[in-house]
Fold this sequence. Notes:
Blueprint: H1 5-9, H2 14-20, H3 31-41, H4 54-62, H5 65-79, H6 83-94
Helix pairs in contact: 5-6
Amino acid sequence: MKETASSVFSGKSVQQTVTELRADTTHGLSLEEADRRRTTSGSNELHKGSEQTMLGRFVDQLKQPLIVLLLASAAVSLLLGQTDDAVSIAAVIII
Length: 95
């Protein structure tokens, strides 16, 4: 199992954690330490994923097997003349 920062430091005191991270509880990291960490670990930024339009997400959801099954059920209900059932199923899919 991969250790995360929270699992490594969760059992330690604040002082032990601060000492191991070479930080200061009052002033945080020194500029030199911040620059060193930025060099070794990269900037502390989240990478922006590919943006997908709302229509794209909707189409992706239509590809899920359960949604396909519900769409088929709605179509069968329409063919059998059970419009209220078909509308109910369609409403569940849209929501």
